[in-house]
């Protein structure tokens, strides 16, 4: 009997650890804007390229560089050959070897859980035909067999959970008509139904929490007038009222003080502690677009005077979906703890029964009830996880393995 109780206790503790870890999983995915993962360093490391830089993504101690260059140099070291793409190891202060080479300019880089997606005007990557967009293995940086097909250059990439947003000059992606802006399932590479159909090119995409900010040369998007900039709520895809009054096409979105506006840079050095962008302007009418950073707007900047400035507040105000997701997960944690506590009471009653049959029977019933309760909790979690990950493919989430999906009555115009 003691061996049985020992095995049950070990199994229950394993279940509880799984439930607790599930309840404490961050709501935000790794697709959150990379400035949140910016490398913090007391030193300044200058990095130079012999051409122009279009994008710079700091992520987990690495900096991914894309642009139009053939050499990269860390100050104090010899320059190294790299074709339009490079990865800098900031901890060891070195340029990683074995990265793929691109035959033309890299415009955008987005990092997923298992893959890296790169867009630009290139047509081949390390000798493999991958026009305008390529999927790389995140661990080896090799070209993935998985392919995304577009008919024109890609200038912007951004990720929301398992959804990849793609912007550029294209009108067809994966064989489906999606003018200038599309979203894909990052796992299957299937095109989603999101189709706002802007009337001209998209050059900038930034996801901030539950907002997708879009910049480009369009004047119409999702059937509404939006001159050069717009935003959509996520995951519903509803067009919001937000826009910038720029009067000119938006190629990147840059936060400067209390404003969001397009800015061009001419500096060619990266300062890690500042995580500022580098770029060299070019004629907006050519394919080589102005190189300016894609910076996520914050709610305190974009909203009216009645909106709470979350930077001054000191923390991000959770959305209704985040609150409900937390409530669902904490419910499972409390239920699991209650079942474990009830089992411990039964075990204690068994130990102190003194061999009395009625006391032993009552203790057994408590333990059995606790075990059945834990089995029910695990069963419910397994069913919900299967629905979210397999059946609904994370398009509908119930708050267990991904944030709760709150349905919207409004759907973007197809």
Count of DSSP H/I helices: 5
Which strand order does the major sheet show?
2-3-6-7
Specify the structural class.
alpha+beta
Top-tier CATH class of the largest domain = Mainly Beta
N-to-C CA distance: 64 Å
Counting DSSP E segments of at least 2 residues, the number of strands comes to: 24
- The CATH topology of the largest domain, please? Methylamine Dehydrogenase, Chain H
N-to-C order of helices and strands: HEEEEEEEEEEEEEEEEEEEEEEEEHHHH
Please tell me the total number of domains: 2
Largest sheet: 4 strands, antiparallel
Mean pLDDT: 74
Low-confidence stretches: 12-42, 263-311, 409-414
Shape: elongated
What is the CA-based Rg, rounded? 26 Å
Helix fraction bin: 10-25%
So, CATH architecture of the largest domain? 7 Propeller
Strand content: 15-25%
What does this molecule look like?
The protein is an alpha+beta fold and 414 residues long. It has 2 domains: 2-28 and 319-391; 34-313, 7 Propeller (Methylamine Dehydrogenase, Chain H), CATH 2.130.10. It is 23% helix and 25% strand. The protein contains 5 helices and 24 strands. The protein has helices spanning 2-23, 299-302, 310-313, 320-351, 357-391; strands at residues 47-49, 52-59, 62-68, 71-74, 80-81, 85-89, 94-95, 106-111, 115-120, 124-125, 128-129, 133-137, 154-160, 163-168, 172-173, 176-177, 181-185, 202-208, 211-216, 220-221, 224-225, 229-233, 254-256, 259-261. The strands form 9 sheets. The protein has a 4-stranded antiparallel sheet with strand order 2-3-6-7, with no helix packed on it. α1 packs antiparallel against α4 (320-351). Mean pLDDT is 74; it is low at 12-42, 263-311 and 409-414.
């Amino acid at each position: 009997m003691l061996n049985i109780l020992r095995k049950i206790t070990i199994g229950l503790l394993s279940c509880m650890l799984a439930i607790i870890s599930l309840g404490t999983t961050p709501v935000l995915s790794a697709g959150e804007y990379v400035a949140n993962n910016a490398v913090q360093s007391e030193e300044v490391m200058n990095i130079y390229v012999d051409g122009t830089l279009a994008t710079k993504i700091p992520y987990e101690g690495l900096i991914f560089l894309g642009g139009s260059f053939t050499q990269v140099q860390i100050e104090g070291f010899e320059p190294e050959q790299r074709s339009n793409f490079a990865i800098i190891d900031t901890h060891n202060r070195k340029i990683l070897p074995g990265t793929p080479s691109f035959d033309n300019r890299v415009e955008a880089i987005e990092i997923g859980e298992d893959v890296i997606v790169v867009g630009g005007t290139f047509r081949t990557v390390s000798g493999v035909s991958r026009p305008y967009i390529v999927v790389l293995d995140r661990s080896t940086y090799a070209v993935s067999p998985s392919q995304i097909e577009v008919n024109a250059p890609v200038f912007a990439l951004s990720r929301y959970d398992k959804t990849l947003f793609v912007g550029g000059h294209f009108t067809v992606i994966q064989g489906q008509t999606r003018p200038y802006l599309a979203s894909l399932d990052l796992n299957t590479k299937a095109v989603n139904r999101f189709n706002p159909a802007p009337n001209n090119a998209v050059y900038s995409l930034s996801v901030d929490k539950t907002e997708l900010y879009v910049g480009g040369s369009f004047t119409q998007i999702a059937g509404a007038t939006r001159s050069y900039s717009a935003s959509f709520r996520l995951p519903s895809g509803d067009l919001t009222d937000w826009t910038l009054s720029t009067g000119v096409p938006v190629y990147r979105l840059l936060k400067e003080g209390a404003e969001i506006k397009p800015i061009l840079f001419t500096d060619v050095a990266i300062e890690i502690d500042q995580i500022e962008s580098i770029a060299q302007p070019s004629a907006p009418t050519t394919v080589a677009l102005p190189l300016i950073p894609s910076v996520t707007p914050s709610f305190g900047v974009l909203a009216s005077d009645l909106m709470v400035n979350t930077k001054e507040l000191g923390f991000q105000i959770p959305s209704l979906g985040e609150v409900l997701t937390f409530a669902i997960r904490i419910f499972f944690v409390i239920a699991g703890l209650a079942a474990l506590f009830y089992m411990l009471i039964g075990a204690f009653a068994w130990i102190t029964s003194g061999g009395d049959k009625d006391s032993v029977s009552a203790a057994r019933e408590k333990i059995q009830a606790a075990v059945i309760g834990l089995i029910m909790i695990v069963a419910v979690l397994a069913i919900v996880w299967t629905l979210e990950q397999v059946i609904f493919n994370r398009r509908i989430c119930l708050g267990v393995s991904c944030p709760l999906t709150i349905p919207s009555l409004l759907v973007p115009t197809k």
